[in-house]
Amino acid sequence: MYDIEDAFEKHIERLRSLDYNILEVMMTNVISSAFDSASTVASGVELLESFASVAKRPSMKTVLNRKTADVFSMLASPGSLAELYGREDYPEDVCLTAPLLTALPVS
Asked: For the Dynein heavy chain tail domain, which residue ranges apply (predicted)?
């Protein structure tokens, strides 16, 4: 029984001596990998809204800001307005003058 306690205490000390928060790293990875499956602007915006409330740490905010930029670049692509409005013949030059999303929270 003492062997188990000693092993447990050694593992706890090793966790305490880490320079980073394991849960923060894991949550940052979850945020980052969630966007891998976002293939549309709408799904990207949904993910941004979902993670905006839980991204409190600087590393999480940094990843979320990068993903926000990725969603905006998806919005600037020629097919994104067609996707939003359900038209395939949307002119490409309209994308350059499309209004940006203003409903997203600013950190």
From this structure: 19-76
- Contacts of 107 by beta carbon, 8 Å cutoff, 6+ apart: 52, 55, 61, 64, 65
Neighbours of 31 (CB within 10 A): 22
pTM of structure: 0.59
Name residue, tokens 């923060």.
24
Task: DSSP letter for 100, please.
Answer: P
Q: Sketch the domain layout of the chain as residue ranges.
A: 21-97
- Quick one: 43 exposed, middle or buried, by C-beta within 10 A (0-12, 13-18, 19+)? middle
pLDDT higher than 60, residue 6: yes
